[in-house]
Amino acid sequence: MAVIEIQAKTMLATIAHPDGIFGLKYNMNLYRGCQHQCIYCDSRSACYEIENFNQDVLVKINALELLEKELARKRVKGVVGTGSMNDPYMPVEKRYNLTRQSLELIARYGFGVHINTKSDLVVRDIELLHRIGRVHATVAFSISTTGDDLSRKIEPGAPPSSARFEAMRTLSANGVTVGTCMMPILPFLEDNPENITAIVEQTVAHGGSFIMPWFGMSMRDRQREYYYQQLDRLFPGLRPKYEHAFGERYECPARNAKTLSELFYNLCERYGLETSVPQKMRKEAAQQLTLF
Fold first, then answer.
1. Structure pTM?
2. Does domain 2-289 have CATH number 3.20.20.70?
3. Where are the domains of the chain?
4. How far is the first Cα of the chain from the last one, in angstroms, to the nearest whole number?
5. For the segment 214-267, what is each residue's pLDDT rounded down to a tens digit?
């Protein structure tokens, strides 16, 4: 993929009504496009206006300057999320270090952070995450299958699921709150009890304390077109099942979503897992952290 440097206008987006799952107050994207090239990625959709998603990754080279100015101006501290539109630890991060330097700013100004990632590169920043954890630091590894063979097919540019679980273990052992973002669950590929059970049990075994589920996927315009092309290439004969089951629908639930949901929540209760990101943001801790 081509790497293109661009100038951004702003960095932090304020979330007016934080949801009960992630608990974010702000969101940031340091890059546009993603080298992980997951075949199902919603960021290909036309509404996000990311042209050449499959060829280019755009680097916001003024991101740190903008972020520091915006953090300094914020009167209300909160959790900054990253990883919604692309992976903050995709390979280009090794070159530009925007995520690492952003974490340094977040720590300096006393904000919390939540990271969604498919990469074990996050382990590089353990010390920073531990420091931010005095306020709030959580990492969710996006994992929808425990099988490395399948993960390599559907997420060809990302480390396999086993590497993500090992990174989860390492972060947990060093005091970072970690868990799994079990989204999406691809119909006809991942929507079976064995897969859901394995994800829950592997999360527990590797020190995770939460799992956020979604039993299905979304599809629209360019995203659907690309996904179907990849189904034809990787899983011949599967595309007609999708077309028959979902047509042009945006939300495409798993075939047995209710059954899988019941299984999932029973397993989480058994193992003591939360089903949203634990909220640890404390005003007094944020104020204390700015003194360091």
1. 0.93
2. yes
3. 2-289
4. 40
5. 999 999 999 999 999 999 999 999 999 999 999 999 999 999 999 999 999 999
